[in-house]
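ARCHIVE CARD
Drawer: 12
Card no.: 0347
Subject: one protein chain, sequence and derived structure
Cross-reference: see card 0346
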Amino acid sequence: MKFLNRFFDGVQKDFRLFLFILILLEIYRALFIWLMSDYIAEDSTSAQIQTTLLTGLRLSLKTAGFVAAISFVFVTILGFNFRLRLLTGIFFSFIFSVLFMARFPYYQEYNATYGIELVRGWHEDFFSILSMIVQEYGFLWRFPVAIFLTLICIAILSRLLLIKTHPLPEFKNFASKFIFTAALIFFLGLFGVFVRFGGSLNYSEGISWESAAVTSDGFLNECILDDGQAMYRAYTMAKFMGAGIIPLVDENKILESAQFISGKNDLVENNLAPYLEKIASGEKIEKPQHIFIILGETFMQWPLLGKYDELHIADGIKSIIAEKNCYYSRNFLPNGDFTSVAITGMMTGLPDVNLHVNYLPKTYSQVYISSPAPPLKKLGYNVDFWYGGMPGWENISKMALAQDFDTFYGYPDLNAEKLTAWGVKDEDLFNAIEKKLGSEPPTVHFIMTTTNHPPYKLDLKAEGFDVEKTLAEIKKLPNVPNAETLAIELGHYWYMDKVITKFIRNVSEKFPNSLFIVTGDHAVRVDPSTHPTIFEHQSVPFVMYGAGIDKKILPPDVVGGHISIVPTIIELIAPEGFKYYSVAPSLFESFGVAFNRDVFLTEKVAGKIDTDAVEILPHVASADLDTVNLSQERSNAEKVISAMRTVSSWILKHDLNF
């Protein structure tokens, strides 16, 4: 009887803890929607907001149930000290308050709540991340606010748990006691199932983070996830990444996939090499003395679009594009949303398949068949990588050398002071490269800039950037949540554009027979509004400039991505019959599809891979709009994505035989 008394008392207090956490999460959800209301789509209705709050409440049953279950098991059942219940509530109140405060800058950065970005950033330099959080994302005031919110939670929860519980009923006989106990256990079991499935008694009618997108508004869909569920999403994605799990990969169809990407449908081999072998059709330009592949940090494409001309932050690269010996495509995607994913793609020639390639043992034991270094060296070039930051970041230096690059130059080699924890000023990086050029043989230079990255510490006024003038133009744009912050960010973009343009012009004058490729490592982080299009949020420019290049060397706005760059260079300069290996075709033989982990791009549309979201590209001619078949565009894209991902996943996980 003593145990039953304690059990009944504990169940009531656990239920109070459950309700407290559930209501706290709902309050934080409502506050986030209210305070970030600029991100709500214009066509969203109050009914959708109500749906968000109700669906979020259902999903938060799981999170609150998890917290209450800790108290239920250890205090109510096992009889640990009752203070553990309060401590559990305090701990999670603190965690959820911190996550709530951090959610604001996180969403502004990634247009999403906690997820894959946390997984990708796990191996980032801790002190660099900490510096960025403190200097750019308001840690010094957000954390005290989180502490204040936690203190309020402690005051409320401690009083809630002190309220007297209902006593155990008096039982006249054993039968009544048995019936009550059985009913209590049955109710608890039923309640547990109801909570486990998010307000339902079965999986099909329940809700989870995967099925929570029930509105047409991306922002509201993210708000449905409380921070506990969002962190669970990140955890699940981490498991997927560890296993290399990503949609549209089917290793049972490795032969069909290899045949598809090669076009060799009659070839039946049990080794990937014959399918990945490419034979160059012959030189299209004179062989350059130097080749520069520049990955600009957050070199997003939208500032180059006509609707943003008045910002004047991309005038340098636009002046390059305007010249007759330049080709430019708008239909270009980065390898992913992160610098490391862009770099590993460039070093291996493989698309992102949700694996940390730079931490795979295989990466350091062999050169991947698709690695760009061997064919470039075979063409007579040294292959170097230049990075304005630390060589040890994300194993980048080690990986470059393992993948047959000749030399890696990082911060210690540049004889310049760091601007931030991420690296030196871009000007110092390019100056070091220029100094090296006169004393080295023909070289392909892969270059990764660093300045256009938070924390934003460049003295923009000293560099010649008028923040106030740009701010005035930004305020004319619709749906800009924080114009002052965006002005500073775009000032750093302007600086990067200026430095890259100056470098191209200086080197072209000294070494006229040079080839330059300019693109961005990713676009996400800086958007023109609270509701960027998929194209604005993801696309980066592809600029090819140099002797022999003209605007007709490739089809207009050819579709491609990072891993098509080196095959394109090889097809430009290699003699007829030159053999090399590549998963992606060159831009001369483009599939008409580009993709990264989350989105795809065709000549006409951009879409998300794991949802039905799709949009027509802004530069599709109005006369062609009626001919765009969205479902057909997606279907064609998925065939290419599936084949290339399947082959790339196989290369990373197995040997070439199948």
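Annotation on reverse: The chain has a mean pLDDT of 93. The longest helix spans residues 2-35.
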